[in-house]
Amino acid sequence: MRKLFSFGRRLGQALLSSRDKEYAGPVYHIRDWELRKIHRAAIKGDAVEVERCLRRFRDVDARDRKDRTVLHLACAHGHVEVVTLLLSRICQIDICDRLNRTPLMKAVQCQEEACAIILLEHGANPNIKDIYGNTALHYAVYNKGTSLAEKLLSHHANIEALNEEGNTPLLLAINSTRQQMVEFLLKNQANIHAVDNFRRYNSHSSHSVVSIDSLPVLLPL
């Protein structure tokens, strides 16, 4: 089993890139001067104030000085009431921030499942990629359970999506020793040969890579 999870650090590099210092960690790093009044209200979960701002300024997709929208901030902080309000005002559901991350990606990354489900039920696209090539399903690998990954797949998330490092969600799950997620992805027909592909394209590396033959031991009896 130890050999199974012996990937090198490079496997998850696209999710943890040092280029992403401004957004290190799942929740945005926020300074007050970057925000407008409506963004502050969204972060606090104050739906009444958000609605008041919308009546006055009428810009449901208003961006702060870091190009984050009200919907991004509400999703990152798990404020379902604000998310529901914004969707009722026909906000752009797949709008992207500076790193090309959608509100759905932020909800998944921050493990705000209720917000993510609302977005999916309103037609959010789970297959948009950020600047590192990651989809919402790549971020779901790091969640505590598999329920959100299951919801993404039920809304046609691509289980074989490759990020810039050539990693599928399955490879990331193996690298981060998320055994429950590995089992879940394999049950949902994730391509185990992606591991062989990774080994072939990274044959110059000294790191040990998982054996295809050992993968089935993760599946429950």
TrEMBL record:
InterPro entries: Ankyrin_repeat_domain, Ankyrin_rpt, Ankyrin_rpt-contain_sf. The keyword Amino-acid biosynthesis does not apply. The keyword Protease does not apply. ANK repeats lie at residues 66-98, 99-131, 132-164, 165-197. PROSITE patterns: ANK_REP_REGION (PS50297), ANK_REPEAT (PS50088). Gene3D superfamilies: Ankyrin repeat-containing domain (1.25.40.20). It holds the Pfam family Ank. Keywords: ANK repeat. PANTHER family: ANKYRIN REPEAT DOMAIN 36-RELATED, ANKYRIN REPEAT DOMAIN-CONTAINING PROTEIN 19-RELATED. This is Uncharacterized protein. It comes from Colobus angolensis palliatus (Peters' Angolan colobus).
